[in-house]
Amino acid sequence: MRILLIGATGKLGAAVHKTLTGRGHEVRTVGRSAGDLRHDITDPAGVAALYAAAGPVDAVVSAAGDVPFKPLADLAPQDYLAAFRGKVVSQIDLVRQGVAHVAERGSFTLITGVLSREPVPTGAAASMANGAVEAFVRAAAIEIAPQRINAVSPSVFTESLADYSDYFPGMPPVDLADVAQAYVRSVEGAQTGQVYELP
Predict the structure, then answer these.
(1) What is the pLDDT of residue 74?
(2) Percentage of the chain with pLDDT > 90?
(3) Per-residue pLDDT reduced to its tens digit, 56-79
(4) Domain limits at 109?
(5) Could you confirm whether the keyword Oxidoreductase appears in this record (predicted)?
(6) Please, what's the b/e burial string for 107-131 (b: 16 or more CB within 10 A of its CB; e: otherwise)?
(7) CA distances, 132 to each of 77, 128, 139, 166, 191 (Å)
(8) Which of 8, 70, 120, 139 is least enclosed, having the fewest CB within 10 Å?
């Protein structure tokens, strides 16, 4: 398959890239400042330029989404709006504009996270964004068929515990290799409208 991978330079994106290319897929990487194609997907014009440059593809895979972590009392409007733009609007636009560029039976795989179901202090903006993406996936699935759409919703990565364990107290971590397999399930499988929760 010919796949667009957004956020390929991050820890998750690198693991997904390695896994998908290892399975014989042709993967074109996308990032703001690195990758085969360089576009800002938080800007609808950037998404349009991305699809114009990429041409037809079989799947779009997102491993990118920025959200701020702050106590609720300190969250200013620009913070939760930044979370919405950085993780929700950007991924919605990948799908909205991508429908015309993805194969008839192609797929979209978006990224959410454990905070949609297991909120933590300072994570309100992330919980909001993750929940919105998951609701969108379920809604979009009934409209874009026979194209498919799913989301991957991991816990904190085992490989990131040194930096982020304080944000996820008591939550079991998940290995990046296992998260990458959820992307394989979404890209190569037949399901749609699913949120793959890990662990």
Answers:
(1) 96
(2) 94
(3) 999 999 999 989 999 999 999 999
(4) 2-198
(5) yes
(6) bbbbbbbbbbeeebebbbbbbbbbb
(7) 17, 6, 11, 25, 20
(8) 139
User: What is the residue whose two structure tokens read 């609701």?
Assistant: 135
> Contact, 147 vs 191, CB < 8 A?
no
Q: Percent of the chain, pLDDT > 70? A: 100
Number of domains in the chain: 1
> Is pLDDT above 90 for 167?
no
**Measured between alpha carbons, how far is residue 149 from residues 56, 67, 144, 177, 190 in Å?**
17, 22, 8, 21, 10
Length of the chain: 199
Residue 120, domain CATH: 3.40.50.720
Residue 131: C-alpha distances to residues 48, 71, 112, 123, 166 (Å): 25, 18, 8, 12, 22
Q: Token pair of 61, please?
A: 């895979």
Structure tokens at 129: 């964004």
